[in-house]
Write a structure and sequence with these properties.
heterodimer, A: 323 residues, alpha+beta, Immunoglobulin-like, 6-stranded mixed sheet, 4-stranded antiparallel sheet, B: 683 residues, 5-stranded antiparallel sheet, 20 strands
Chain lengths: 323, 683
């Protein structure tokens, strides 16, 4: 019942819609503002000052009280203005495994000349942390990464984020809700160990036994880092030389092909099967063999190798829902 | 296990924002500075306690180990409260409350852990400032406190900005200035239009018993010379029309009848004014703005012919306010200098002849001698004045101490005194001679303030004179002090340093440059003070209603005021906010130099077109005005790479500034007119 009421009130909330270009622009009627606890203290002290000055007919006291009243009023307007004309774009971050922190990349742009101070982002879930405030100069943009714990495989949606500010004096808090459609892909959590996949019966022309670790020893060259690359392959020495994130590429034997097959695992829990498969994908990639993936419902990933293949396979596992 | 998966690590949770030490130091200094002006009203024990806590705070900023732990802080708090209780015997009331607030705020300085603590303390500074104004409302304190409030706003801004990228005090100061300027018009609207209370809601015992410099209700030797060394203002007078000559300005205060041998005092009861004054000239009209005296009497030129609306006039032509004056009081009066008063009743006559017990035989002898030579009362008065002029009487601020019979000792032994000695002795001698006499206390003269167009009357202008009753002339004013030979004025005494030179008692020429300077500074300071008094401190509900009437909403009374206030505040706020929206972008120094370059060329008719870049514009300028080629080319040679090149340095900007300093394209007068015409035509 309470939930329903809450949900009903949520529908009443004004949210900043995301436009066709994927950018949400904050306009005047979408900003909420309330005093903070400091603001309430400020208000009560000013009220006390007002009463005292009026009572003692102390004009100088009144003058200073009214100055603080004016500052309070201005603070309210400045807080409100601080959110106005911000453009926000929310994108899902790189895919992560269950148990890791999923990230969303939020780009905030000031659409006018005014600088915007102390802008922070909150996800509307209890588990997320607010980011600390950033300053966005006029016509500039700033990128904030919001992290959420990944608890379930699949697409993690971020339905709504709050963008808030305490500028200028922490007396008022202005915020608005940004409705987004951004998602981050969450892979199933790999089991710590997995049985080596059974060799495919249909694959008879395998020329030789696979050699463990041979694939990681043939150094081919390096290329820039892409999300999803194994940290093992990162050229850390290059990082130390400030050449940026560079990944070493290793060649491997072309002859080996491994099929990772759902039907070959004899486990009751489908989630566990997916986890084992995820581990097998990682192991196979680590060993540098060509591998393919077969899932029920006709989902098949033809054999290939490399980071892209890992991502494709893990995506299938993450989004698998046929049973 | 393959270390592919990093264990998910959450960033550490920050529940409370820690206060950084610079902010703590700034806060401490601000609180201490805000407490300083209050110290002079505090008991010395409270001052000592506050000083210790402040010292502890400053020491522990340097050495953190000195910061007391929680238990000790609790002990300090209890000690502080006990100290306040012990010194003031109360925690409420103005003195008690202010002492407690200051103690608690300083103690809170020892416990500034979070930003929230800092914010709350900063807000409380506002309260401390307002409390100070209940003690003192001078302009100087107001300026001091506005600096404190500015600091408080800067600190609040800084506290909020330090969790962003810009941990910059300069930025916070700039923002605070920006906010203050925006707040001023709104403050003004609220101040002018916020409905006031006419009577206090409650009274927390605002201390009115503070020692006030001013005239007392009796006169004894030394009473007025005490006032003469005071630098306080008594009242200001604004005349309609010309100001009468300074030696005519006898400001009548109170009339003393009873002499007990040492002191003169007032009659217990005096009836309302009933007799008629014969007015022989057009009355002088003037307004008086009286400083608080804590007494009821008002001052008016000798003699007042009208009564202020709120006051009464008694038989002695004294003006009395209904209540004692504890804030600045304004009234208007009319006076005449040439007049004749009706004969008083026989009872009054008898009162004016009362003699104290200590009239000595030699006093009687003196008067008897005069009586023999005088044909009538008036001649006796002249004899008395001649006596003071003839004998070696000295006028001094520092007379010798007088014993049990001051009048006798003064007349025959010391012969040095101030106006109260002369007035007292003269009145007594007249009474001995059978002429009813009374002493009048008031002020004499005043200093004209040319800036403000009013007369300033200082406490040091306090004076005493005598009125004697002459048949067919009524009460006549006699100033025995004026009878003293001006050569016998003691220039060495403090009177010279203060105001006696300016005072109308004696006309002395000021040749001393420093004294003149001091005088001019005093006049300026009083003008500022009077404006402050008039426009800020005395602004009242009546003024508001008058303002409302002038606008034409007089019938609406307080509601009109409230509505008007809401409308004007909303309008001002709206305008401010609109101003915020259309803020012009700030130019970088480089752009500013280029704008300046273009502006100076535009002045000589070379207006840059919007489609022209700096190079095209420069080429056109060179073509039209070849003599400018060198300057323009040199400027552009620096500007173009600096603006569009990969890097800009301060050095380049400085170079541009250097070039701009000497870049003033000239144009002949004829050309200038032609350009002006061309420009206007284009518009």
């Amino acid at each position: 019942m309470l939930n329903r009421i809450q949900r009903y009130f949520k529908t009443l909330l004004r949210q900043v819609p995301t436009g066709n270009d994927g950018i949400a622009r904050i306009t005047a009627r979408q900003i909420y503002i309330l005093p903070t606890s400091t603001g309430l203290i400020f208000g009560s002290v000013v009220l006390l000052m007002l009463l005292g000055s009026l009572n003692y007919q102390n004009n100088l006291g009144l003058l200073f009280t009214f100055f603080l009243v004016a500052i309070g009023l201005l603070a309210m307007h400045h807080a409100w203005f601080n959110l106005l004309h911000l453009a926000i774009q929310v994108r899902g971050g790189a895919a992560v495994f269950v148990g890791e922190m999923a990230s969303f990349i939020i780009t905030i742009r000031a659409e006018t000349q005014r600088p915007h101070y102390d802008i922070s982002i909150h996800a509307d879930t209890a588990t997320s942390l607010p980011t600390s405030g950033v300053l966005i100069a006029g016509h500039q943009q700033s990128t904030i990464t919001l992290t959420l714990p990944a608890q379930q495989r699949g697409l993690l949606p971020l339905n709504s984020v709050r963008i808030a500010t305490h500028h200028p004096m922490h007396l008022f808090r202005a915020w608005c809700y940004i409705s987004t459609t951004a998602t981050t892909l969450i892979y199933p959590q790999p089991t710590p160990h997995a049985p080596p996949p059974e060799t495919d019966a249909g694959n008879v022309n395998r020329p030789q036994q696979r050699r463990r670790s041979s694939g990681v020893e043939d150094y081919l060259g390096s290329r820039p880092y892409r999300p999803g690359d194994s940290p093992r392959h990162i050229d850390w020495k290059a990082v130390a030389r400030e050449r940026g994130l560079v990944v070493k590429q290793f060649g491997s034997d072309q002859g080996q092909t491994l099929w990772l097959d759902w039907s070959q695992l004899h486990l009751a829990d489908p989630e566990l099967r997916l986890s084992v498969l995820a581990r097998q994908v990682l192991d196979a990639n680590h060993n540098g063999v060509r591998f393919g993936l077969r899932l029920p419902g006709g989902v098949t990933e033809p054999p290939a190798q490399g980071a892209a293949q890992v991502h494709r396979c893990l995506t299938h596992l993450a989004l698998f829902n046929g049973r | 296990m393959i270390p592919f998966i990093k264990r998910a690590t959450r960033p550490p949770i920050i529940t409370t924002e820690r206060a950084d030490s610079t902010a703590v130091l700034a806060m401490s200094i601000l609180v201490i500075v805000a407490c300083l002006p209050l110290l002079r009203f505090f008991h010395w024990q409270i001052t000592l306690f506050l000083f210790c806590i402040a010292a502890l705070r400053l020491i522990s900023w340097r050495w953190r180990a000195a910061l007391p732990p929680t238990g000790l802080r609790a002990v300090f708090t209890l000690t502080g409260i006990a100290n306040c209780l012990y010194s003031n015997h109360t925690l409420v009331g103005l003195d008690g409350g202010a002492a407690l607030l200051a103690t608690m705020m300083l103690l809170k300085l020892l416990e500034l852990n979070t930003k929230r603590d800092l914010r709350v303390l900063a807000i409380l500074i506002g309260f401390l400032v307002v409390i100070q104004f209940l003690f003192d409302q001078s302009l100087l304190l107001a300026l001091y406190c506005s600096l404190i409030v500015f600091g408080m706003i800067t600190l609040l801004l800084e506290l909020n900005s330090s969790n962003t990228d810009t941990n910059d005090w300069k930025n916070s100061l700039r923002l605070a200035g920006y906010f203050s300027i925006q707040a001023l018009p709104i403050m003004l609207c609220l101040f002018l239009l916020f409905p006031r209370l006419n009577a206090p809601l409650w009274n927390l015992g605002l201390d009115s018993g503070q020692a006030m410099v001013g005239m007392s209700d009796h006169m004894e030797p030394g009473a007025i010379s005490e006032l003469a060394v005071s630098g306080e203002l008594a009242f200001r007078a604004r005349f309609e029309g010309a100001i009468p000559p300074v030696n005519q300005l006898y400001w009548r205060g109170l009339v003393l009848w009873n002499m007990d041998g040492r002191r003169w005092s007032q009659l217990a009861t005096t009836g309302a004014f009933t007799t008629q004054i014969e007015i022989m000239e057009k009355p002088v009209r003037y307004d008086i703005i009286l400083e608080p005296t804590q007494q009821k009497w008002l001052f008016a030129l000798d003699v007042p012919v009208t009564t202020p609306t709120t006051a009464q006039r008694n038989t002695d032509l004294q003006l009395l306010a209904p209540n004692s004056i504890d804030k600045v009081y304004r009234y208007s009066v009319q006076s005449v200098f040439n007049y004749r008063l009706n004969e008083p009743s026989a009872a009054r006559r008898a009162l004016g002849l009362q003699l104290p017990y200590n009239v000595t035989p030699r006093m009687r002898e003196l008067v008897a001698g005069w009586r023999q030579q005088a044909a009538n009362d008036w001649e006796l008065v002249q004899q008395g004045l001649a006596f003071f002029s003839r004998e070696q009487f000295y006028y001094t601020l520092l007379p010798p101490r007088l014993g049990l019979n001051p009048t006798d000792e003064f007349l025959f032994e010391t012969r040095q005194g101030f106006c109260e000695h002369y007035a007292s002795a003269f009145a007594l001698l007249m009474r001995i001679g059978g002429i009813p006499a009374r002493v009048v206390l008031g002020y004499l003269g005043g200093e004209f303030n040319a800036l403000g167009g009013y007369l300033m009357v200082w406490q040091s202008d306090a004076h005493a004179w005598v009125e004697v009753l002459i048949a067919e002339r009524g009460w006549v004013r006699i100033d025995p002090t004026a009878a003293i030979d001006p050569t016998r004025i003691d220039h060495g005494s403090a009177s010279q340093l203060l105001n006696a030179g300016q005072s109308a008692r004696f006309h002395l020429d000021h040749t001393n440059v420093f004294a003149q300077w001091a005088r001019q500074i005093r006049v300026l300071a009083d003008t500022v003070n009077a404006a402050w008094q008039n426009w800020v401190l005395d602004f009242s509900a009546q003024d508001q209603l008058m303002l409302l009437e002038q606008i034409g909403f007089g019938a609406w009374k307080e509601y009109g005021l409230a509505i008007l206030m809401l409308i004007t505040v909303a309008l001002t706020l709206g305008l401010t906010v609109l101003g915020l929206l259309r803020q012009r972008p700030l130019l970088t120094p480089l752009e500013a130099h280029y704008m300046c370059f273009c502006r100076r060329l535009a002045r000589v008719g070379l207006v840059r077109q919007t489609y022209e870049g700096p190079r095209d514009f420069g080429q056109r300028v060179v073509k039209e005005r070849p003599e400018l080629a060198e300057c323009v080319n040199r400027f552009l040679a620096v500007y173009i790479p600096a603006r569009f090149g990969a890097q800009t340095s301060d050095q380049l900007v400085n170079q541009l500034a250097q070039l701009m300093r000497h870049f003033y394209p000239h144009q002949s007068l004829l050309q200038r007119i032609l350009t002006r015409l061309k420009n206007t035509n284009r518009m």
